[in-house]
């Protein structure tokens, strides 16, 4: 399984949802980064399961234990490994998944790929649980980027068919807004839509069903000139990580699919010097990236998250052992909607992508003192 990603910063993840532990190793982290352990734990708590009835009832503390590469509060430059112990597995919920392939889940493709050897308990290494180590790694990257004035925020653009408004260039990722969003399961611009979004999730749960949604992510403070043409473009780097997150099914940058219906005269983002002599653009249809490289405007993208597959309703499927068509209900502790918990994950992988792009360009070995 491909558990390693990155050009300069190498991120390697391990573990299964119902195994003893999950975790991550970060290679080539600059030495001397001071870790803000409180900030890391806050990020972990945003994603952790079992925090409310909008999410899975499986409760996990998600307390990372750093076992290498960290001394006296600072990274040493050696590979940094963190382990997160699984403390609340209930594998009997998955006994039928040896034979019955959940529609929309990784059971059937995973079985075909690994010839039946993959750990099926709790979806094994395919589980959304493996995003906990990514949030740990991303929290380190976020702290490092924040020192460079780079901020990352994400809000819920939609749940099912209920919409928040989109980000505009007038909006600023202020400390207050980021703190507010980080404290909310459904971070929003428009507070009025919250009850309807929550109700959509509760209604789906009540009906033994699930719902999806769209998350909009914004990155401010990235100077012009990061990224590369072709294979390591900023879009390609972000997309690689975003599509590694389970349940992501769509991604658009800037005006995305809508740009296809514009004329060049509308889609071109006109440059100007602001009063401080900084280069800006009047619009941001290209989402902060042209030619695979940043141009100093916010990076903006939207990610479509599918409704979780494991639902209690009767569904048609196959019994892979008997070779017959059958039906199944999925029981167990599942998220009725992944959006609230995937937001810190999307922010985390965004931070890792940007950190890698910056390390590649600047070859930094040591943190600034
Ligand atoms: C944080 C998080 C929580 C998730 N929770 C569930 C869940 O409770 N039930 C479920 O069926 N899928 C859940 N998923 C999604 C599955 O892991 C995912 O759909 C599956 O691995 C197949 O991958 P794909 O949807 O990307 O194709 C979750 C994903 C994430 C990121
Ligand atoms: C445990 C987590 O989420 C899990 C993600 C998940 C899935 O299929 O992705 C299915 C459920 O697993 P289980 O059946 O073991 O409770 C969720 O609870 C987590 O994110 O930490």
TrEMBL record:
It is an enzyme of class 4 (lyase). Its EC number is 4.2.3.5. One of its GO terms (biological process) is aromatic amino acid family biosynthetic process. Pathway: Metabolic intermediate biosynthesis; chorismate biosynthesis; chorismate from D-erythrose 4-phosphate and phosphoenolpyruvate: step 7/7. Its cofactor is FMNH2. GO terms for cellular component: cytosol. It catalyses: 5-O-(1-carboxyvinyl)-3-phosphoshikimate = chorismate + phosphate. Residues 46-65 are annotated as: Disordered. InterPro entries: Chorismate_synth, Chorismate_synth_AroC_sf, Chorismate_synthase_CS. It comes from the Bacteria. One of its GO terms (molecular function) is FMN binding. Pfam families: Chorismate_synt. Reduced FMN (FMNH(2)). The keyword Glycosyltransferase does not apply. FMN binds at residues 125-127, 291, 306-310, 333. NADP(+) binds at residue 47. This reaction introduces a second double bond into the aromatic ring system. Homotetramer. HAMAP family: Chorismate_synth (MF_00300). Belongs to the chorismate synthase family. This is Chorismate synthase. It comes from Suicoccus acidiformans. The lineage of its organism: Bacteria, Bacillati, Bacillota, Bacilli, Lactobacillales. The gene is aroC.
